[in-house]
């Protein structure tokens, strides 16, 4: 008997851009990002480039008629909910796409690709002026600082000049402009969204890597994908910026050059949630079986696990209500849930800033017996004085301070971080581990080495 089909309905997005044989930018980046964001990606290829993570070796621009045929084929068949443009290469192509844009009934995101991240030029100088015609029909333009300067003459060096460049772009008729800050020096990246309604700034710490190949394409595609889902522009930009930040931090180590952004990082993160939760359940089962009562602090023990790409406590799994001592041993109060931990989760995430391979943290008791057992661990145990921690405790500052001090004192990644407490703060040992097995081994080694009372 034949099975009934179960089709999956999702919005369609169209990218009009060049192909990257290296797979990190252009059409390839756009389609991966759209798929990761839950859209069905379609494409019109403007040029074929021979490139990799080290640079562009050659490029071949397709005839305008062939590009128009691809666009017509998509628009005549699909209900396209958003369009994104990338490498348009020449003035005739920009003009042709502008003609298409004039009749579009969908949001249009224009990424004015002019130069590759490697420094190779991807747009003829004659095509620069024609961009104004295209922008007049666009929902959003996403230039980096260099592209914004070419389009407006404004040298983008800070937030004020980014706003100035964005306001100049609005004069072309574009609905809004996102002036990206990745090319502006500094420890923090500021992407500035300028619209008639006002200015929004999206700011985050810079990731210390050169693996940004495909970042502009990925950001514009992520925003277009959210617009295809019907998100308001500000929300779409916020989601896109967050998506790219994670894609750059957890970039793909491919090629002989710096590497590529990880277009599927959000999808991989979602896929990792179930096995991460199951791993916590298995660790808890082992602790119950071994009866780790002597290591359970007064506040209760928790086992926290982060997905490989976790960036906030909501992406860590933990025991809701913690693990507590009973007359017959230990037991979890409730089940495992994502976002169930605050302090231990924030400590783990802060430690991951220094060693992203860390996945697990367990808070244990600290007293004289535990102190004497720390030598049983397979790595260094670091003591911290909580009377020196930051005040006031703004969100995340204490845990970040603990992690920075611990890594600095251990000259690497410690197996455990302990403190003797402070007024209103119980003494705690925090065990860190890269995987569930190591977390279990370290806690059970600690429990097994406890001297007799």
Automatic annotation (TrEMBL):
Enzyme Commission identifier(s)? 2.7.1.49, 2.7.4.7
Q: Quick check: keyword Transferase in the entry?
A: yes
Q: Which UniProt keywords apply?
A: ATP-binding, Kinase, Nucleotide-binding, Transferase
Report which residue ranges the record marks as coiled coil.
none
What Gene3D superfamilies does the database record attribute to this sequence? 3.40.1190.20, Class II aldolase/adducin N-terminal domain
Boundaries of every Pyridoxamine kinase/Phosphomethylpyrimidine kinase domain copy: 20-262
Any one GO CC term of this protein is: cytosol
> What are the protein's GO molecular function terms?
ATP binding; hydroxymethylpyrimidine kinase activity; phosphomethylpyrimidine kinase activity
Name the InterPro entries on file: Aldolase_II/adducin_N_sf, HMP/HMP-P_kinase_dom, PM/HMP-P_kinase-1, Ribokinase-like, ThiN
Q: Which EC class heads this enzyme's classification?
A: transferase
- Keyword Nucleotide-binding found: yes
Residues annotated as domain Thiamine-phosphate synthase ThiN: 280-444
What Gene Ontology terms for biological process does this UniProt record contain? thiamine biosynthetic process
What is the protein named?
A: Bifunctional hydroxymethylpyrimidine kinase/phosphomethylpyrimidine kinase
Higher taxonomy: Archaea, Methanobacteriati, Methanobacteriota, Stenosarchaea group, Halobacteria
